[in-house]
């Protein structure tokens, strides 16, 4: 089913509009969330350039632009292993999309606006999940179980965050 889903790298001239198109007003939350989760999960990550990808089913992810694979460690589900930077980018993007889907609440946003942001994040998470289910992306599958993973501030704190 998902074997036909492909990803294409976004060309430099389209990068500025890419995240706002997919994340709306929360594009900085998504981008900073990815950098933060990667910093927590990958001991060798010290920043760098990230490539943007769009999948043929309408989702997206960003991946650290690095030639070699990386060691990833998710304490909450006891995963520790080597992944390609694409697989790591898919996993981290899914965690942040999950967090965004649950972080829009009535205290900060109006109901219709929050529902739209949550629906967009949830749809992107589902579409990206289908993309990662491709057999070539085994490492991304192993570190993220089929259930929704919510990367909350509390979990980040337990992992050595703020």
Key structural traits:
Alpha-Beta Plaits; 5 strands; disordered C terminus; 6 helices; 15% strand; two-stranded antiparallel ribbon; globular; 162 residues; alpha+beta
Furnish the topology, listing elements before pairings.
Blueprint (H helix, E strand, L loop, with lengths): L6 E3 L5 H9 L3 H15 L8 E6 L4 E5 L5 E5 L4 E5 L1 H19 L7 H22 L5 H6 L9 H6 L4
Helix pairs in contact: 1-2, 2-3, 3-4
CATH class: Alpha Beta
- Uncertain stretches: 105-114, 145-162
Helix content: 40-55%
Q: Overall mean pLDDT score?
A: 74
The count of helical stretches stands at: 6
Short description:
This protein has helices at residues 15-23, 27-41, 85-103, 111-132, 138-143, 153-158, and strands at residues 7-9, 50-55, 60-64, 70-74, 79-83.
What does this structure look like?
The protein is of the alpha+beta class and 162 residues long. The chain has one domain: Alpha-Beta Plaits. 48% of the residues lie in helices and 15% in strands. The protein contains six helices and five strands. It has a three-stranded antiparallel β-sheet with strand order 1-2-3. A two-stranded antiparallel ribbon has the order 4-5. The radius of gyration is 15 Å and the shape is globular. The C terminus is likely disordered.
């Amino acid at each position: 089913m998902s074997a036909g889903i492909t990803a294409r790298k976004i060309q430099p001239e389209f990068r500025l509009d890419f995240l706002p198109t997919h994340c709306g007003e929360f594009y900085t939350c998504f981008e900073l969330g990815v950098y933060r989760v990667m910093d927590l999960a990958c001991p060798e990550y010290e920043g760098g350039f990230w490539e943007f990808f769009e999948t043929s089913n309408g989702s997206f992810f960003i991946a650290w632009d690095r030639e070699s694979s990386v060691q990833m460690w998710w304490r909450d589900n006891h995963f520790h292993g080597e992944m390609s930077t694409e697989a790591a980018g898919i996993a981290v993007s899914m965690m942040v999309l999950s967090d965004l889907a649950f972080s829009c609440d009535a205290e900060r946003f109006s109901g219709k606006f929050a529902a739209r942001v949550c629906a967009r994040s949830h749809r992107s998470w589902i579409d990206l999940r289908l993309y990662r289910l491709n057999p070539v992306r085994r490492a991304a599958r192993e570190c993220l179980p089929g259930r929704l993973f919510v990367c909350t501030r509390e979990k980040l704190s337990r992992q050595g965050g703020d």
